[in-house]
Model the fold of this input.
Amino acid sequence: MYFIGVSTGKSSIMKVFPRWAQHLGLGTSEEVAIQGIDCKWHDEPAVYRRVVEFIRADKLSKGALVTTHKIDLLNACRDLFDDLDGPAEVLGEISCISKRGPRLCGSAKDPITSGLSLKAIIPDDYWRKKTGGELCLLGAGGSSLAMTMYLMQSVPADQRPAAIRVTNRSVPRIEEMKKIHSRINPGIAVTYHHCPLPHDNDKVVGALPAFSLVANATGLGKDAPGSPLTDAVVWPINGIAWDFNYRGELIFLDQARSAAATRGVRLEDGWVYFIHGWTRVIADVFDIEIPTAGVDFDKISEIAAGAR
Done:
């Protein structure tokens, strides 16, 4: 199995996967392995095509998890896939490459994994109890698209945030998100903000009401240095700072930590997202069942924690 990313060798999955593989009955480390493939951010289409063509042709390659490059890879390789699932078609991204016989399949797992991860962070009645709380997504890439798709299509109206605010450094991703939302949004208030600089994001976050959730979906702090915010940002009272990353500098969470005592901000990293994201893809790549809750899932989480 392959891991297509930016700095794959630093990921805990390199230690976790062999333990999971043995626990799940896939085989020993000599029988089943994981291999990282590092590409540049927004790499050349030819690079993505070489990767996908190799996986498609190689009989020993079972599939891959894709991070960071979900949208760019599909844009470059759409014609190489025999099947794309519904979310992949809607979102224009894939996070999982798998095979079914001679057919190469692409799927977008993030609407599932982001939903499972969000439910682990907040209860179903969070938004209803904390009336007026909003969701702010810093970054308009694949993870943010998936999160909004989950909220728009899989969550009852009384369990959604009062509004969603999305920021991004470039305009094209915002425009693409708007097009997708025009087809799937059941009526959630969404505002889109072009924020080329961190202090532009500060203004959006500073205007959020109490109990809002601010998510770093930019990759900054892991795939690239820095944070989408400045140290001067004013966090929402009793809000939640959620970094989709679990490793790297995590400057975003350091900034939120400084406001934990004075403004009641709660910090969440991307560890649960990591577990759900990987187990959903592994289940698809190896065509096996992996639970998302309960005693068996707790055991999988325990195994991962031991290698973190």
In short: The chain has a mean pLDDT of 94.
